[in-house]
Amino acid sequence: MPIKIPKELPAFDVLSSENIFVMNTERADTQDIRALKIAILNLMPIKIQAENQLLRYLSNTPLQVEITLLQTKSYIGTHTPIEHLEKFYRCIDDVKNQKFDGLIITGAPVEHLDFEEVEYWEELKDIMDWTKSNVFSTIHICWGAQAALYHHYDIEKYILDKKLFGVYKHWNNYANDNLTRGLNDEFYAPHSRHTEIKREDVEKVKDLEILSESKEAGVFIVANKNRRQIFITGHLEYDRDTLKDEYFRDLNKGLEIEIPKHYFNNDDINSNPLVTWRESANVVFGNWLNYCVYQNTPYNIDDISYLDDISQSQKPKIRI
């Protein structure tokens, strides 16, 4: 089954050109099937780019997925046309009485600020609390992961000596876990951040497990034991040129920036970057949709219970 998005959304043409099966909402509404309801809280400044990246991996599945795009109400970015935001985005007040099978909270370029200094922090806290009763499983990405770990578990972030920027080798700590099954023992993922979380802080929380980490990039994938909260500190969703574009953007601004590690062939910035993480991205996002969401979320979406009501040993009914 395909991903279900409006035909006017830019991602529709992008994904169709890549031979990804995309179904417009009009056609999907004629099918007698309950699509998975997945929301994306897009905190990235260039929202269309982030949409395309995430929708590409949510499309690579036999499941029908219905997407709702969300933005904050307390802060409206200026890097995306207002017409696009008004047409395709909603705020949490518009959906607060709805339930979703899954939600993705993206990263945001606000690492230099303390969490409490972020303009939309209070709203984001309310949204993260809302997910515990209205979303079956939530993925948090990069700064979104750090923000959620801080809010839910009081895990601090730490400033790095220099920006972690490049594509790094990781290992899989749980080869048979629902989220990481199918990953190679060693795999690659992009990172672009100035802050980190520390392994010892995560290990103090009994409900959290470190599923993947890296010698150079540190903790990568963390999840609570029932996989209803997932935290990914890097960017598996990135395109081939995302780090390249970021590098030249900062270079042109006169900012101090190093060449992304393990990214350009022989560090030649004029070469075509090597994609070494696409397979891993497909595995993780596909596993999340299938095992963490589809196989466990209630068929009647209104039956989604509060996060803490389902323990590791209490499995909900399987959807068939």
UniProtKB/TrEMBL annotation:
GO terms for molecular function: homoserine O-succinyltransferase activity. The record marks 192 as: Important for substrate specificity. The record marks 111 as: Important for acyl-CoA specificity. The keyword Hydrolase does not apply. It catalyses: L-homoserine + acetyl-CoA = O-acetyl-L-homoserine + CoA. InterPro entries: Class_I_gatase-like, HST_MetA, MetA_family. The active site is at residues 142, 235, 237. It is found in: Cytoplasm. CDD domains: GATase1_HTS (cd03131). Pathway: Amino-acid biosynthesis; L-methionine biosynthesis via de novo pathway; O-acetyl-L-homoserine from L-homoserine: step 1/1. SUPFAM superfamilies: Class I glutamine amidotransferase-like (SSF52317). Substrate binds at residues 163, 192, 249. Transfers an acetyl group from acetyl-CoA to L-homoserine, forming acetyl-L-homoserine. Belongs to the MetA family. This is Homoserine O-acetyltransferase. It comes from Romboutsia faecis. The lineage of its organism: Bacteria, Bacillati, Bacillota, Clostridia, Peptostreptococcales. The gene is metA.
